[in-house]
Each structure stands twice: as C-alpha cells, then as structure tokens.
Amino acid sequence: MAPAEPDKFGLAEALPHHRLAVPSSLVASQTDPWMSAASALRWASRWGASYSNLGAVGHINTESGFGPFPLARRWVEAARARAAREQRPAHATIQEWRFAV
Description:
Helices cover about 30% and strands about 10% of the residues. It contains three helices and two strands. The protein has a two-stranded parallel ribbon with strand order 1-2. The longest helix has 16 residues, at about 70-85. It is globular and about 40 Å long. The two termini are about 15 Å apart.
C-alpha cells in the first residue's frame, strides 16, 4: 500500500526484480509525493502484482485519512489462514504487517 520510491532510500537493488512467488497487489496514487504512479506501475509489472491507482489522493496512509485499512487486514488474515491450512509458514512480509483497528 502506497510504497515509497526505493531509490530515495537506496533500496532498489535490494528489492526483487522478478515476479513474486506470492499473489500481490500494489495500490498507488496519481499524486503521491513518495512514488510516482509511473514508477509504482513499473514495480507492480515487475512483480506480477495487480495495480490500482486511486487517482489524485496524495500519499495513501492513515494521516491522509485512509485508515484504518479493514479490507487489507482481512486480506492478511485470510492469507495467514490459507497458509495454516496448507501447513506452511505465512510469507514473512505478511507477518510484519501492522494495522490499526
């Protein structure tokens, strides 16, 4: 959700540059000061992620009025449940997500 430009933090080379092994979605904004919509689309394409552009809404975070994220929380919980049913650990990035309730 609303990533920041990896190059701003010297992280671009540390990120995967191929299709991710897990289903993913990238949600961006046309006017996000942290990452351009064009860059977000490039990363989504690189990762094989679905891409959603919410339009001219700035940075997508709770401070901008976009929180809490109940749908994202339900998605993470469903992914954890699927992983448990398949008897494999949930992907590390899913375990690191934190959401305000």
